[in-house]
Amino acid sequence: MLLMLAALLPAIDLQDPEWPQWRGPTRDGVWSEPAARASLPDTLTPKWRTKIGSGYCGPTIADGRVYVMDRVDEPNEIERVHCFAWETGAPIWSHEYDSAYIGVSYKAGPRCSVQVLDGLAYSLGTMGHLFCFDAASGEVRWRKDLGSEYKIDMPIWGISAAPVIEGEHLIVPVSGKDAYLVAFDRKTGKEQWRAFSDRGNYSAPIVINHAGERVLVCWSGDRVLGVAPTTGELHWQYPLKAKNMPLACAAPVLHQDKLFLTAFYDGCALLELDPQKLSVRELWRRRGRNERSTDGLHSIISTPIAIEDHIYGVDSYGELRCLSIKDGSRVWEDRTAVPRARWATIHFVKNADRVWMFNDRGELLISKLTPNGFEELDRAKLLKPTRGQLNRRDGVCWSHPGFAYGHVFARNDEELVCADLRAPANAK
């Protein structure tokens, strides 16, 4: 482990919203911080930028520090976990380890964002290397080689589903033999339970309140599971076998008493949670004939968002769509938010009555999404696309950004940047 001296960290109001895990504090793509700016310059000049290697995982921000993972393949194949000072980008610590990618397609680097809680930082690499660090110093508290311990049937895109913390458990979609899900004591790394023999998938689990219980919702390659997070007991299941290969990357979206699901090949579905007992029922299902002729929403990389009675997301070729929650019917479609291309991507973050959108061209958009249509309020270039993540169409920016301390944090395959989004002091 290489430790590096950082500049003194600035004082942080710990009440300020942070971004300590994938998709934010509550794992739902909501940025609650007020006073974000209402307009953008043509190019959003970063407050700082720092060089990193390639990788798909987005940055996370907590306790005045920024965490991100990357990969280097020369002279040896290694994954790295980095920690930087949030205000300056100065390096604080870095940890590297050998990780040869075997049987994995798209080798740009790690997929899962670092998760931070109570002074501990958790990272999960593409081949199943799981670490718990002291978040401030980078000291390794415990580690696991999930690939060797659990005989992972490696998904073609590697281990991609970000673990979730519930209480004292770190719950990981391992995709191992008789261990699709494994829960560890998050402080010691000791296994607490393992369950299921499902095929692997890429969708990150969430934890919801259902019928008076905390329920882990996890989408495997065969079904959607409702699980007791403390024991691994199965509460309910919804069969959802992939038509071709398992290719669900979007997380389940909770909206009131409903769960929305979407996958590239298999379209979308809406489940209703029974308020009195731990069970679900299908309200509707929509699936097109193929990846080009779609119905509803066939999302690939990004997770949609729900606003009032509608779902907003990106279809398989970059079509921004609004669906009615009532029946999944398409209300409108827009093709201006991101250029049309296979797997074209937009990441959505709700902030008050606006939606921040980061597309795979490296552009940051301020928008309003309503049943009346997509209203683009402003757009700025933040990062250039790079070819490590996708060696086509001049590259992409596929990693989810983080929002904290009034700033946006984003990466490509060459650098991590931070830009100020606070409203100017003279703004009216």
Keywords:
single chain; mainly beta; globular; four-stranded antiparallel sheet; 428 residues; disordered N terminus; Methylamine Dehydrogenase, Chain H
Provide structural commentary:
The protein has one helix at 146-150; strands spanning 2-3, 48-51, 60-62, 65-72, 78-85, 91-98, 115-117, 120-124, 129-134, 140-145, 164-166, 169-176, 179-185, 191-195, 206-210, 213-219, 223-227, 234-239, 253-255, 258-263, 267-273, 280-286, 305-307, 310-314, 320-324, 330-334, 346-351, 354-359, 363-370, 373-381, 402-404, 407-411, 415-420. Strands 1-6-5-4-3 form a five-stranded antiparallel sheet, with no helix packed on it. Helix content is 1%, strand content 43%. Mean pLDDT is 94; it is low at 1-14. It is mainly β and 428 residues long. A hairpin with a 2-residue loop joins strand 11 and strand 12 (169-176). It has a single domain, classed as Methylamine Dehydrogenase, Chain H (7 Propeller), CATH 2.130.10.10. It contains one helix and 33 strands.
